[in-house]
Structures are given as structure tokens and as C-alpha cells.
Amino acid sequence: MKTVVCHDLHFPFHSRSGIRKLLDTIRRIKPDHVVLNGDILDLHALTTHRKDSRWEDQLGKELDSGYEFLCDLRKAAKTAEITYIRGNHESRYENYIQGRAPALRLIGLTLPSYLELGSLGIRWVQDAGRTKVLVPCGQGQKVRMLHGDEFNGSSKFPAAQALKVAHEMGCNIHQGHTHRLGVMSMPIAGRLRFAVEGGYLANPRSPAMKYAGPAPKWTQAFSIYDSEKQDNPYPQFVLC
Fold first, then answer.
1. In sequence order, which residues have a C-beta less than 8 Å from that of residue 76 and are 6 or more positions away?
2. Residue 18 and residue 202: Cα distance in Å, rounded?
3. Is the Cα dihedral 158, 164, 167, 171 positive or negative?
4. Pairing state of beta strands 2-6 and 33-36?
5. Looking at the predicted structure, is the pLDDT value of residue 53 above 70?
């Protein structure tokens, strides 16, 4: 079983070349599962932090760009299962509705409904900290998907924060959120556990990244897991 995992695309502030490579790879390898591991949208117009004035009234454009990507993804992955995990940027939508117009929730004006995830056959996971999303990997193991904002903490080193979460949860972990790229492993409860931080696919020169802080271009990547691999359980990083 092959699974493609990507996160931190931050539409419409995505890396165009990175998205082309992602979709081309999906068409070529025909994965069984695609995991959108949070922050697929940026929702810059809804941030409580400083906004770029050119985008503060462009919510519709942001949402439409994300929807167009999801349509392109479904065309590329015609028969694959697709799972969309909410990230902290998707949470901006809910937080805005709850703070400004909570009654809109009663008429179903949710992010999954706006993006038409049901008609696209895309599963929405509201909280991956509560709902397990497990991906088979090599050596008969599985790795749990988290966006990364489900647990507090940070680290200067790639995959170090994910390893802390793996230690706490007692399982292999793959997360985004940090925009770092790396793998760490250590014995946990008598078993070798690994942790992954899988990079990002946003444009580092875009308004979204301006406020997120610098991230080196070499960490632009997505991941491929192959459960048929017997030599190791780790993902293949596809650099963009």
C-alpha cells in the first residue's frame, strides 16, 4: 500500500512547482491513500495576527483556490482514499465563525461544506489528536498522522518535537506544522519508534510565510510511505 502525505501548502500561497510535482507524482505512482495533513489552506484573511493589506478582504479567493486544488487532487487520485486533517490554519475559519457569528454554525456553514468535501469523496478529520489516522509503512509498522498543533512544544531540531510526541503517545508519529524536514528514532517502551516532520509546500516568499518566519527552500517536500518495504519503515521524502 502506498500513501502520499503532504501538509502546510497554505493555499493560495503555495509553491506552484511543488504542487505540480505533488500532482504529477500522484498520477504516476497511483497511491492508495493521500493524507492532507493540515494547513492546506492559509485563511490569511481570518488571522488574528498582522495581515497583509492586499489579502485582508480576499477570503473568497483563498477558499476558491483551495477548492480548485482539491478538485485537481481528486482528478489526479481518481480511486484513492483522501483524508483531510484539520490544521491550525483551518481552525481560523471555525474560530472566526464562533467569535463573530456563531449562529452560522446552525445552518451548516462549515469549512468542509464550503469545500464540498462530501461530493469530492474526501474524509474530514476534525481532531487527529482524538481520531486516529494510521498509515501502514515498511516492516509491518504503522505511523500516526498529526498536524502538529495538537500538542504544545517546539524544538530547534528537525523531528525533535515529533519525537517528543511519539514518546508521549507510544507510537510512530508523522507531523507537519513546524515546516521542518527530518526523521528521528529512539527506543520507546522496548521498541524502536520513529518520528517525522515532513516539510511544507508553501511559497517561502509569500505573505503567509512572511509572518511565519524563515523556512529554507530545501525543506519543501512531501512524503511517500510504502507498506511493502521490508528494509525500513521510514518515508521517502520527495524534495520540491
1. 23, 26, 27
2. 8
3. negative
4. parallel
5. yes
Q: How far apart are CA 161 and CA 173, in angstroms?
A: 10
Percentage of residues in the chain having pLDDT higher than 70: 96
Considering 44-58, 121-135, 153-167, 216-230, the range whose residues carry the highest mean pLDDT is 121-135
**59-76 and 16-29 helices, crossing angle to 10°:** 20
Q: What is the pLDDT of residues 15-42, one digit of tens each?
A: 999 999 999 999 999 999 999 999 999 9
DSSP conformational letter for 151: S
Report cis status (omega within 30 of 0) of the bond before 12: yes
Res 208: pLDDT: 76
Question: Three-state SS for 131?
Answer: coil
Task: Note the pLDDT of residue 56.
Answer: 82
Checking if the pLDDT of 223 tops 70, the result is yes
- What amino acid is encoded at 90 in this protein? E
Helix, strand, or coil here: 45?
Answer: helix
Is pLDDT above 80 for 130? yes
Domain boundaries, the chain: 2-128+200-239
Q: How big is the chain by its Cα radius of gyration, in Å?
A: 17
The answer for residues whose C-beta is within 8 angstroms of residue 213's C-beta and 6 or more apart is none
Residues 6+ apart with CB under 8 A from 158: 178, 180, 181, 182, 184, 197, 219
Give, in order, the Cα–Cα distances in Å from 37 to each of 98, 124, 158, 191, 202. Answer: 23, 11, 17, 26, 14
Is residue 73 exposed (0-12), middle (13-18) or buried (19+ Cβ within 10 Å)? buried
Spatial distance between the Cα atoms of 169 and 225, rounded to a whole number of angstroms: 21
118: cell is: 462530501
